Backbone:
């Protein structure tokens, strides 16, 4: 928790910054316009980086793109030019009529051969031979395309059906479905680690695919206002407590044309379950799926015969009285089809567990922080590399794990957010990282002047720096962007809560500043990070330079803090989260430079739910709120997300009732603006309509704005309009 002495130190530092930023050399900095901040974050203000940086397969050489040139480097020698756009176009002139305008995304097959996509064509280039050929071509209107680069085979969908194209030859229609059955597309609304609908076997001989029967799922009407008259576009949207889709997994054999479905259900199970994290065995003979019951309290790792579809055995299982959430498929140890890694939260933090396919547990990592993702393995298969948070949950580091005893050592050095690639031998890593503070971020003397916009290093996996490839300059050096602070406070129960605060770069001593709290505080999101800008969006820095303090806090329920921190919100979404946000607001009110009477709040999606919750359930806390795409009633939200955290409405009526914000409208004291995308298929418009009707019934005034043609968020150039709307509303009412 920040002590009074540290709080005083921050105040003194802010005053010191005000004096520093008044010096002539800094006074020449220009303010950043809202248009620049919204549209420029990933364009002109994005730090310099090495485009397409990767290891060349089977070598210790790396490659990247600089403008229209491909550069190759070695561990000992200097970097050198390999080939350029003109040369590439010469190689590809027989397969590309128009020619390339820039180096395409290169997908390396060997150290000298890569493929790229050019429209409907997949083109393979041999740099040694100086030639190119079309490996495969897409069909017109193909969706959910899954390209198997080794064979040139393509799986794709049209409408509700699945198709397979063998190179540039024969196309086979795998399914012929009625309107309520969908094949080859992602299922379960992309929850539980699901992100796609087709899965090639390692050799490309077979294709596994998801299929969902939606005949029980209610059709939900979305209105298309671009037609004359407006038309209805119905989608299948299963709401909490209602019947959901029925899931199956098919396997298509390309050589025989046979199709089988895995035996996912048995007499003990009904048809309401999740089949997640599908994985093939290395030899392509078996399929592994994590079977999860609809209540999300039990997960079983199941093994299936890929030829017959029959269930072979259950390898392991785990349960939790709150929820189990499988996020990753099992990962086999390279060169060993009998040992795999299982990702689990069961011991308090996400760790990896080494199993035999017989079900025998061989060992586990014992990190007291969150491990996140497997990056790769060394050539010998004795060591794996993973991401993890570390001592500071706002950091992201790379770690090596010895598979003999599952011991862990950290590979990356300075505090920050690191993204690494491991060479095939496992001897070296490419480390691209950024940081707000390279030391202890809880020390509030750490400020934005210490930040690292972007740096790329080559390290040995023993931790030795080989060389630095890039150290980016600050692309915002000529702009006034405020001063960003990362730190932690404590809530009433003594739990550390990480915060980001952006203050104006020129603060007047004795002046009190209004505050805008930007909030999400929902599952799977961490807003406060120790990367460049601290995880903020540049519109926040723009707002700070307009005389505001912009504050964000990640409370209980948000990610990267372990099982107990995230599961604390079970069956009561919006209750503990409000308490933690109030702890942040109370801390703000104690700061001498904060105007406690002028605090506003803004958030989108779960953040819109939180914004509306605080405005209605804690009236008077914030003078103004802007809630975008807000969940108003969890009974109106999707099965797959809601029931994990809230159980069903029948099982948890009290929790749903308390979180139904339409029942709290009589408490509204201050200004509230709701914003919704007209085509929102995630948080459907009915949420906002329910709150508006409740406000009308209670004779409460509330403001409302709709973005035609936009779904769950406002993208593209219209986002400038959105942020102007948000900022104008906050400014007018603060």
Residues:
């Amino acid at each position: 928790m920040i002590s009074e002495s540290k709080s005083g130190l921050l105040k003194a530092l802010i005053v010191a910054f005000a004096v520093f930023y008044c010096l002539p050399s800094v006074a020449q900095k220009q303010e950043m316009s809202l248009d620049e901040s919204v549209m420029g974050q990933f364009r002109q203000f994005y730090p310099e980086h090495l485009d397409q940086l990767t290891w060349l397969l089977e070598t210790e050489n790396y490659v990247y793109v600089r403008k229209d040139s491909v550069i190759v480097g070695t561990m000992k020698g200097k970097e050198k030019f390999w080939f350029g756009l003109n040369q590439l176009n010469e190689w590809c002139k027989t397969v590309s009529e128009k020619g390339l305008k820039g180096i395409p995304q290169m997908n390396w097959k060997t150290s000298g051969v890569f493929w790229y996509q050019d429209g409907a064509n997949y083109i393979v280039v041999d740099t040694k031979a100086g030639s190119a050929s079309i490996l495969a071509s897409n069909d017109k209107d193909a969706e959910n395309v899954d390209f198997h680069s080794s064979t040139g085979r393509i799986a794709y969908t049209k409408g509700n059906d699945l198709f397979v194209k063998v190179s540039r030859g024969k196309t086979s229609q795998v399914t012929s479905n009625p309107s309520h059955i969908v094949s080859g597309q992602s299922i379960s609304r992309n929850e539980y680690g699901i992100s796609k609908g087709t899965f090639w076997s390692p050799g490309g001989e077979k294709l596994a695919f998801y299929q969902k029967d939606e005949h029980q799922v209610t059709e939900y009407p979305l209105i298309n206002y671009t037609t004359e008259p407006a038309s209805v576009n119905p989608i299948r949207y299963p709401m909490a407590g209602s019947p959901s889709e029925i899931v199956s997994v098919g396997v298509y054999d390309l050589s025989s044309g046979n199709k089988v479905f895995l035996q996912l259900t048995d007499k003990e199970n009904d048809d309401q379950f999740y089949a997640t994290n599908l994985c093939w065995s290395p030899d392509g003979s078996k399929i592994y799926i994590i079977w999860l019951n609809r209540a999300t309290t039990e997960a079983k790792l199941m093994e299936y015969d890929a030829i017959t579809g029959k269930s072979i055995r259950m390898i392991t299982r785990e349960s939790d009285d709150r929820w189990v959430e499988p996020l990753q498929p099992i990962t086999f140890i390279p060169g060993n089809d009998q040992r795999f890694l299982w990702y689990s939260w069961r011991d308090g933090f996400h760790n990896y567990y080494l199993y035999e396919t017989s079900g025998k547990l061989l060992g586990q990592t014992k990190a007291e922080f969150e491990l996140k993702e497997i990056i790769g393995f060394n050539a010998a298969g004795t060591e794996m590399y993973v991401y993890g948070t570390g001592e500071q949950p706002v950091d992201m580091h790379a770690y090596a794990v010895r598979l003999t005893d599952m011991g862990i050592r950290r590979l990356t050095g300075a505090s920050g957010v690191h993204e690494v690639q491991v060479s095939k031998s496992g001897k070296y890593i490419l480390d691209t990282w950024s940081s707000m503070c390279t030391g202890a971020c809880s020390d509030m003397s750490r400020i934005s002047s210490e930040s690292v916009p972007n740096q790329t290093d080559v390290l040995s996996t023993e931790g030795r720096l080989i060389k630095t490839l890039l150290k980016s300059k600050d692309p915002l050096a000529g702009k006034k962007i405020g001063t960003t602070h990362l730190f932690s406070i404590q809530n009433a129960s003594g739990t550390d809560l990480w915060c980001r605060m952006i203050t104006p770069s020129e603060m007047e001593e004795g002046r009190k500043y209004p505050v805008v709290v930007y909030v999400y505080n929902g599952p799977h999101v961490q807003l406060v990070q120790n990367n460049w800008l601290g995880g903020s969006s540049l519109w926040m820095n723009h707002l700070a330079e307009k005389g505001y303090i912009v504050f964000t806090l990640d409370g209980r329920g948000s990610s990267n803090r372990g099982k107990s921190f995230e599961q604390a919100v079970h069956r009561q979404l919006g209750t503990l989260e409000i308490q933690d946000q109030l702890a942040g607001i109370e801390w703000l009110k104690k700061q001498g430079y904060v105007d406690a009477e002028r605090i506003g709040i803004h958030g989108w999606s779960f953040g819109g739910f939180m914004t509306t919750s605080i405005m209605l359930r804690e009236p008077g806390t914030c003078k103004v709120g802007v809630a975008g795409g807000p969940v108003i009633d969890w009974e109106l939200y999707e099965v797959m997300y809601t029931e994990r955290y809230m159980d069903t409405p029948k099982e948890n009526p009290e929790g749903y009732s308390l979180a139904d914000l339409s029942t709290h409208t009589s408490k509204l004291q201050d200004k509230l603006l709701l914003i919704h995308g007209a085509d929102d298929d995630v948080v459907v418009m009915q949420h906002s309509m329910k709150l508006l009707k409740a406000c009308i019934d209670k004779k409460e005034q509330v403001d409302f704005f709709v973005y035609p043609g936009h779904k769950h968020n406002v993208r593209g150039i219209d986002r400038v309009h959105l942020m102007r709307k948000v900022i104008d509303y906050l400014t007018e009412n603060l």
Summary: The first strand starts at residue 30 and ends at 31. The CA atoms of residues 52 and 537 lie 24 Å apart. The two ends are 29 Å apart (CA to CA). Residues 1-10, 12-26 have pLDDT under 50 and may be disordered.
